[in-house]
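Summary for the steering committee. One of the milestones for this cycle was to obtain a three-dimensional model of the protein with adenosine-5'-triphosphate bound, which we needed before selecting residues for the alanine scan. The sequence and ligand used are listed below.
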Amino acid sequence: MPLTNQSLLEIQHLRRLFKDTVAVKDVSFSVAKGICFGLLGPNGAGKTTTIEIIEDIIPPTSGTVLYKGKPRSASFREEVGIQFQHTSLFDFLSVEETLLSFHKLFARPVDIEALIARCELGSLRKRRSTNLSGGQLQRLMLALALINNPELIFLDEPSTGLDPQSRRNLWNIVDNIKEEGKTIILTTHSMEEAQHLCDEIAIMDQGMIIAEGTPNELIRTYCRTSTLTLPVETLASRPIAAEIEWTPHEDRAVIHTDSIDRTIEQLTARNISLTGLSIHNPTLEDVFLHLTGRTLRD
Ligand SMILES: Nc1ncnc2c1ncn2[C@@H]1O[C@H](COP(=O)(O)OP(=O)(O)OP(=O)(O)O)[C@@H](O)[C@H]1O
């Protein structure tokens, strides 16, 4: 894989064995500066192992990680932010005390008040982490990942288990971080999250990357077909509809098409009513299903 000037990270032929288990078989990809890169895959695909190798938490069995074109140096840990799971927090500390204790660990931390404001923790300063809701806890973990003003941020399933409102809230904060030009590597089980946040996505399965591209590229490459459905009687009762390829499914007539516009033109040209029409455009979930034969748990 060629090293481009814009690449912040180059991952080359990573492989990791745990005794007899091949967790990561042969993984290569590059991450351009300033993008949000998503690593998606079913349980056991090798995402966590890959990320932990990149984070320098575990070594690879073989393969190379280059950061800014060079092997990672001792300063790598100072330049990256990792959103850990909340089990790593001290229960007896308040939000503010937790932030201050981590703040002291870094040579060039961010302004703590700005961080509290950005992560919407102002009203929660005195609250212990044990008394935070899921969304509040995730915002605290995100604040800790940002405390050293990192250039590269690792987010591990940032919104899993959050209600829709808290999830939107968290995405807004992540969008805001992206706007500053920071680079984000994200693992997620949520296709909606990947579609919303990621500029590029690599889909992993069985220790390998099986597809890579922007969300739209992946959809265009693997799932070109949209699905239109109408009440089955709309087509079943019309002999003229025989010219249109459709199949019955329960009480719906299903039409697969690579051009919604053309199909709608065909229907209207035959005076077929569009009442009750529904359209399903392919999503990343369809891409994932197509490639792995599985859906991702949300
Ligand atoms: N410390 C370990 N010892 C033995 N096997 C391991 C270890 N860590 C991971 N594995 C195995 O390696 C494979 C990949 O695991 P990994 O956790 O990287 O997958 P994942 O894609 O992150 O899955 P999930 O989405 O469930 O977190 C799995 O078969 C897992 O059981």
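Key point for the committee: The first strand starts at residue 7 and ends at 18.
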